[in-house]
Amino acid sequence: MSRYSIRIAILGFCILTPEVLLAGQGWYLVTPPMVKSPSGGTPTFNMKAPLSRWDSQSAFDTARECEDFKAQAISLYKEQSINKPTAKERSESIFAHEATVRAICVASDDRRLTK
Known about the structure:
Layout: H1 3-16, H2 18-21, E1 27-31, E2 34-35, E3 44-45, E4 55-60, H3 63-83, H4 87-102, E5 104-107
């Protein structure tokens, strides 16, 4: 293999690695839209809604930061749903926990965000 071929092979590998592909790309933590219950009961989430209708909660530089934040938020809301003093506060924390569990991290240039 010539020196030229090796350089092309290395360059090709660098171009195809996820780290290079995602350089400069931001990430959003998005939650599905809430669907109010017609009877006034507990709202649910529309998991089938297009991503363009999901709610952006936070922005991050990397996918790892987004996923780490999500994991921390899930733990926090779970703890709060147990430890809040009033039923209303516990209910709000349970709802926030459920929304965060269903949240996903999406690249800022994901085409589904604009459809």
